[in-house]
């Protein structure tokens, strides 16, 4: 599904290398987790994969189902099936949440040569997703993320993901700032989407999200590299001992 | 202060092309306006009030010719039931116009009311004259003195059908001047729509007297002609608990100066003035607003948004003057520009002058580019860059467009803006 090889990334404006050779292979149906200290490059990886400006790939490659992601515009990556749930979802005053969602759904369909979703089908689908995530009608009417609490923003990300039905979902610290109930909702939302045809990359600091979204593989990232890969037990190790031991061991 | 000689000769040049209508009830007002105009002269580049906008092409003897524009869009407001009044290059077109009758209002033409007594005598040039202080507005005085035509609307009831003034531009060298007077009696209601480029050069004054409890709505679209020039003035006086709301859409136009002068003279009156303008290239648009709070508990809002690209220029001069006894004034003013490239510019002079102590006034002016984070967010969800930019641009304009209360009109304005953005992409 997602194949990253020897990815090196620096900031466009500065001579600062952030990713220093990332290798990652996620197959359809798998859930991978990335954990790692602050500043290790996790968000950068998610941004580079989704096409944000300001980064320069100096070496390596990234492909989604064999197609070179790095050659595509952000909207093309989305239409190809990549989705990023942002660590910090962006507020867009003046653009209604519904207008935004519908524009996005139909833009992706158009890009893939599919028919647009009818207004009534769209409404039905949004209402169902919103209900599952306990997003009330009032929130749907408001401008995108404006006046949303931290937890509401994160649930809104998951709702977008559910509506867009991507193939490869990247969740960047979707659990941070959530209370236990909100985290359960988010995890249920993600689990509902787990399927054989879909891959997940879950970036998190905490084991607790992984109690709800059970990963197949756990990676530890430090200083722009994946320094250790293992099973779910690796997350428990981090939870109990912090990163110190692991980093010392690989140093 | 003596007027510089050059300025006088500009005035003489301008006057040499005009003929003052004489006889009838407007005579005294016209004579008065002319003598006021002679005292001030026409604005020139040294005039502080014209610091950001060069008045030359608006004041010179002859208009700069303006190519006719083939507008392939259907006429705006075309699907609404309305009373249509059509002017072609400033000349009334009886065939294209509806009968000037309607329930709850009396409509007449300025050119056709010659008697010595007329209700408009108490207003024509009066609100304009009052709006000349503390800042002179010579182009409006010129208009009062010389406007050959316009409409006089006396509203006695709640009128449901809007009066729609349509201004066609069919001659490349037309120089049009119209002067409208609208009087709303106590509790009366009227919506006035205006649309079209009007002429190569257009000088228009609209005086609106809104009596106690009356409601006046105004929505205007200034056409799509690129080369047309316009200097327009609205002078409004608001009585107790009356409402005045005006919105202007300006898309294209090499030179536009829209002045709006409002006096809140009755308690608890409401005045909203808003504008959305979009300009690409050879485009200069100036909104100059002056709102005087002279009564207790009044609310005023100014919401102006400009989208500029390829060297377009936007100007905003807006003032809220709160007089000593205008307690509990609620004044809001925002002027913002969205610059779609580095070549365009926005010049703003927001002013507050407050003499009362119990008031809430706020104002803000900003100039910025498209929010890159928002753009990326939209694109990451699959929205192509061009439509994402359009969506954010419409969102930027929304605060101004949302000032239009009527949903049909609001949507029509939004559609025009969306279509314009689609035609003027990167
Ligand atoms: N646009 C940027 N400008 C400056 N520094 C950046 C930028 N993006 C990332 N960085 C730096 O790169 C490093 C990795 O950041 P990030 O990817 O956000 O880490 P993580 O998500 O693992 O906490 C940090 O040192 C951060 O300050
Ligand atoms: Mg991060």
Automatic annotation (TrEMBL), chain A:
Keyword Plastid: no
All residue ranges annotated as the ABC transporter domain in the record: 2-248
One Pfam match: ABC_tran
GO molecular function: ATP binding; ATP hydrolysis activity
Top-level taxonomic group: Bacteria
CDD domains noted in UniProt: ABC_FeS_Assembly
PROSITE patterns: ABC_TRANSPORTER_2
Keywords: ATP-binding, Nucleotide-binding
Family: Belongs to the ABC transporter superfamily. Ycf16 family.
Protein name, UniProt field: Fe-S cluster assembly ATPase SufC
Organismal lineage: Bacteria, Pseudomonadati, Pseudomonadota, Alphaproteobacteria, Rhodobacterales
UniProtKB/TrEMBL annotation, chain B:
InterPro entries: Fe-S_cluster_assembly_SufBD (IPR055346), SUF_FeS_clus_asmbl_SufBD_core (IPR000825), SUF_FeS_clus_asmbl_SufD (IPR011542), SufBD_N (IPR045595)
Gene Ontology BP terms: iron-sulfur cluster assembly
UniProt domain SUF system FeS cluster assembly SufBD N-terminal: residue ranges: 28-160
Domain SUF system FeS cluster assembly SufBD core: 174-396
Pfam annotation, one family: SufBD_N
Coiled coil regions in record: none
Protein name: Fe-S cluster assembly protein SufD
Family affiliation: Belongs to the iron-sulfur cluster assembly SufBD family.
Organism annotation: Roseobacter insulae
């Amino acid at each position: 599904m997602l194949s990253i090889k020897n990815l090196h990334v620096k900031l466009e404006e500065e001579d600062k290398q952030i990713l220093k050779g990332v290798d990652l292979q996620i197959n359809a149906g798998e859930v991978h987790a990335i954990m790692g200290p602050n500043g290790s490059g996790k968000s950068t990886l998610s941004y580079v994969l989704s096409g944000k400006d300001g980064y320069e790939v100096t070496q390596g490659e990234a492909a989604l189902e064999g197609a070179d992601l790095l050659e595509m515009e952000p909207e093309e990556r989305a239409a190809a099936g990549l989705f990023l749930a942002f660590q910090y979802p962006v507020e867009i005053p003046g653009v209604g949440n519904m207008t935004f969602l519908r524009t996005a759904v139909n833009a992706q369909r158009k890009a893939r040569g599919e028919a647009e979703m009818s207004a009534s089908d769209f409404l039905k689908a949004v209402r169902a997703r919103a209900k599952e995530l306990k997003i009330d009608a009032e929130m749907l009417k408001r401008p995108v993320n404006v006046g949303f609490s931290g937890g509401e923003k994160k649930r809104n990300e998951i709702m977008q993901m559910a509506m867009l039905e991507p193939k490869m979902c990247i969740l960047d610290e979707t659990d941070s700032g959530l209370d236990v109930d909100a985290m359960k909702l988010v995890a249920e939302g993600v689990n509902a989407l787990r399927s054989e045809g879909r891959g997940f990359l879950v970036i998190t600091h905490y084991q607790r999200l992984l109690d709800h979204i059970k990963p197949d593989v756990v990676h530890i990232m430090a200083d722009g590299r994946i320094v250790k890969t293992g099973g779910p037990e690796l997350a428990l190790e981090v939870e109990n001992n912090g990163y110190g031991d692991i980093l010392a061991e690989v140093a | 202060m003596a007027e510089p000689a050059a300025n006088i000769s500009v005035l003489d040049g301008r006057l040499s092309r005009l003929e003052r209508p004489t006889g009838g009830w407007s005579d005294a007002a016209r004579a008065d306006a002319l003598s006021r105009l002679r005292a001030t002269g026409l604005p020139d580049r040294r005039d502080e009030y014209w610091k950001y906008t060069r008045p030359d092409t608006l004041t010179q003897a002859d208009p700069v010719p303006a190519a006719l524009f083939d507008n392939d869009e259907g006429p705006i407001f075309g699907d609404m039931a309305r009373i249509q009044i059509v002017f072609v290059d400033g000349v009334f077109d009886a065939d294209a116009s509806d009968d000037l009758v309607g329930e709850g209002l009396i409509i007449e033409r300025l050119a056709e009311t010659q008697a010595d007594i007329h209700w408009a005598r108490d207003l024509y040039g009066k609100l304009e004259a009052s709006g000349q202080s503390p800042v002179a507005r010579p182009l409006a005085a010129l208009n009062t003195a010389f406007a050959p035509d316009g409409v006089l609307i006396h509203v006695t009831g709640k009128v449901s059908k809007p009066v729609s003034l349509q201004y066609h531009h069919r001659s490349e060298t037309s120089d049009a001047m119209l002067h409208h007077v609208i009087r709303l009696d106590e509790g009366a209601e009227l919506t006035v729509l205006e649309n079209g480029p009007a002429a190569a050069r257009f000088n228009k004054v609209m005086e609106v007297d809104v009596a106690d409890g009356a409601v006046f709505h105004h929505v205007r679209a200034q056409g799509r002609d690129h080369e047309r020039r316009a200097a327009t003035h609205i002078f409004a006086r608001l009585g107790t608990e009356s409402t005045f709301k005006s919105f202007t859409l300006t898309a294209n136009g090499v030179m536009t100066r829209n002045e709006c002068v409002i006096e809140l003279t009755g308690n608890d009156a409401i005045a909203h003035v808003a504008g959305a303008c979009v300009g690409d290239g050879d485009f200069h648009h100036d909104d100059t607003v002056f709102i005087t709070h002279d009564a207790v508990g009044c609310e005023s809002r100014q919401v102006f948004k400009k989208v500029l690209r390829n060297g377009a220029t936007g100007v905003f001069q807006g003032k809220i003057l709160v007089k000593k006894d205008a307690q509990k004034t609620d004044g809001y003013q925002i002027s913002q520009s969205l610059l779609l490239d580095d070549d365009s510019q926005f010049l703003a002079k927001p002013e507050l002058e407050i003499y009362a102590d119990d008031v809430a006034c706020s104002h803000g002016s900003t100039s910025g580019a498209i929010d890159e984070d928002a753009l990326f967010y939209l694109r990451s969800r699959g929205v192509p860059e061009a439509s994402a930019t359009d969506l954010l641009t419409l969102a930027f304009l929304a605060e101004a467009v949302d000032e239009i209360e009527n949903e049909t009109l609001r949507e029509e304005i939004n559609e025009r803006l969306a279509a314009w953005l689609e035609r003027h992409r990167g």
